[in-house]
Amino acid sequence: AQxxxxxxxxxxxxxxxxxxxxxxxxxxxxxYLFWYVQSPGQGLQLLLKYFSGDTLVQGIKGxxxxxxxxxxxxxxxxxxVHWSDAAEYFCAVVYNNNDMRFGAGTRLTVKP
Amino acid sequence: xxVISQKPSRDICQRGTSLTIQCQVDSQxxxxxxxxxxPGQSLTLIATANQGSEATYESGFVIDKFPISRPNxxxxxxxxxxxxxxxxxxxxxxxxxxxxxGYTFGSGTRLTVV
Lengths: 112, 114
Hints:
Chain A is mainly β and about 110 residues long. Chain A has strands spanning about 5, 10-15, 20, 25, 30-40, 45-50, 55-60, 65-70, 75-80, 85-95, 100, 105-110. In chain A, strand 7 (about 55-60) and strand 8 (about 65-70) form a beta hairpin. By secondary structure, chain B is mostly beta strands. Chain B contains no helices and eleven strands.
């Protein structure tokens, strides 16, 4: 079955530290890949997306993600986390049938 | 990117009743999707709604419980029927932008069933 996995349910980092959130997909073909952020009580905000081309994708708010075909991964990174980055982060994939599937999400806590 | 207006933004409903959620897109879109986000959970796809055809439901979701309409390329509704407290969730619609393959989400409907 087509799926996307976020292995980390909850991550805590100190403000100013670097961040990496993991995302793995399972399917033979390369899907379209997305990262969304959801703050408490808020809607989904698209951080970045990958369709093809350069495997390092830059997004909003200083986030970037790297597509690694050999590892079926699309990990999200940020060099220096801010307290306002505390939120729920969702990795999502779109396969040939065009519907978007979400990972379970990773909750980010930022320590002062 | 397309912009979606979703309403109501929240509602509190009595069990046994039904609620219809509407999504209006500001441009024509081919595919629309409905998701459920239960408290503290991720988004689960309920169904895909294409104009001119019946909605396609995911495993665990049935038309009698979640009837969907898609009368044209800019509008869709999801009805949550015969509600129970277990239906308390956030329901979101999404549209695929046919031009840049972007996906836009509505702001969600927070449903509480009492």
